[in-house]
Amino acid sequence: MTAAVHPVDLEPSLIAPRTYTTRRLRVRFDAAALVSLMVFLLYTLPATLIVPGLTFAGRPALIVGLVLFAWWILARISPWLTLVGPQPLRWACLFYMLSIMLAYLAGLLRGLPTLEANAQNFQMLITAEFLGVVLMAADGIPNWQRLSGVVRVLVWSGGFMAVVGLVQSLTAFDIAQYLTLPGLELKSDLADFQMRGDSGHFRIAGTATHYIEFSTVMAMCIPFGLHFARFAGHRLTRYAFGFVTLLMAAALPMAISRTGVVALAAALLVMFVAAWDWRTRYNMMFVGAAVVGALVILRPGLLGTLKAMFLWAGEDPSIEGRTQDYVYIAAWFAERPWLGRGPGTLIPDLYIILDNQWLMTLVTAGLVGVAALAALHITCISLATIALRRSERVEDRHLCAALISAQVVGILVGFTFDSLSFTTYTFTLALMSGLCGAVWRFTHPARTVRTSTVNRWGA
């Protein structure tokens, strides 16, 4: 248990030259509230539920992302909504945005059929929404307390998605079809219960679009659940977060996904090395063994199915199909190595399903796009690592390590599926990337950088 108020939150916030306000000022609406709303809508509503007449970029959560992007732009140009102080993540976002824009121009110069042209426009809109979340999470969250609030919403929302997945798995009933709001419509069918192997087990996706996406998102959220299970202010709250984390850990293998298992192992390995002392490591190993034992009892054969997926991976048709795609990738890359054929133009219905985000980026945005995506990941890891080293409180270091684990997971899963084609994962990554910039800002030795933020509405 730590102090209720972070010492940094007691400092005055510099919002303009020689203009200060309290960092803990209660407002009707701020960037953290809007980011929290985005997270809630992202996890609790099915991924295919959109505003009528729009594409998948019209998911309610993504529309909030577009509002965040517009807010950040206004904050850069308005004297009343100033952003004070440096933020390295802005440069990484600029590089990423420019790479997508250059690839977009390369696609236009190539000459595109209507489907590919529409896909390019869709990808540009998704990119703006993605960067809106990254930038406002990095620059707009005013203090540690509000950042903690956003992460709490993430964990509770992840727990809700886990419950949906567990209900699907235990009852073979898709409760997600009833999670709708008046005025919205399903753009496409929800993920069905796909059988995996001869064991009789089927895959579930919660409110996500795909089973792999569901398991990956659970893996990214679990370290943050563990964070509050250790550091929440009250014992009952710690128990509640521990229970929610166990739900996510139990739901993850129900997706029957190699990617999810690898993602969870990578996330916990980062926490094991960077954040936990030996007592915590032993406790986590004990809890992990208990979860495995519970799964053996409650879902006989499930872990055996997962084990077989790894042992017989060489005979899996999905992996064989991925390696066969390398011939096409080499040809497309040779034609346009630097800027690619255009973002979003490798449409599965027209070409192939490319289950590798790094190769997808290479084909559609070229070497420049791959460099920009890698730079975004590396910048986020660097900022969170710097914040971890600067932090004096164990709680802050643990949160920074969780943010590092999310980026490591993002890098790894990019090799196993086209991760940025799935918006629940994409905007989870956007949030965690932006929070890397926020913790860097909060731990900066210069107070004018620590306390800089977006001027808030409704003060």
Automatic annotation (TrEMBL):
Pfam families per the UniProt record, alphabetical: Wzy_C
Record's keyword annotation contains RNA-binding: no
Keywords, in A-Z order: Ligase, Membrane, Transmembrane, Transmembrane helix
Molecular functions per Gene Ontology: ligase activity
Organism: Phytohabitans kaempferiae
Principal cellular location given in the protein's record: membrane
Matching InterPro entries: O-antigen_ligase-rel_domated, WaaL-like
Annotated transmembrane regions: 31-51, 57-77, 89-109, 121-141, 153-173, 211-229, 236-255, 261-278, 285-302, 358-387, 399-417, 423-442
Superkingdom, taxonomy of origin: Bacteria
Bilayer topology: Multi-pass membrane protein
Protein name in the entry: O-antigen ligase family protein
Keyword Ribonucleoprotein attributed: no
UniProt subcellular location: Membrane
Domain O-antigen ligase-related: 244-373
